[in-house]
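Illustration: Putative zinc-finger domain-containing protein.
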Amino acid sequence: MLSCRDVAGRASALIDGDLGARETAAMRLHLAMCRGCQRFLRQMRATRDLTQAAVKAEAQHEGEDARIAAILSELHDAKPSGD
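Result:
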């Protein structure tokens, strides 16, 4: 049976689906019996989800900034020269 240290070391691989069937089964067996590792894995999943959401929000924000800059550039270029 895996130790808590083993589970902690392989938790990312489990979350990412990078473990084989035997390793996944061993991890799930340990997790079925160990509340501390269950909490640890939940925290890792929450961290992953929050990080992905932050990256997505930042990408959207950068896209909005680019659109605003393009609009402002077009407005500047289209401004009538009444000088």
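Reading the tokens back as a structure: The two ends are 82 Å apart (CA to CA).
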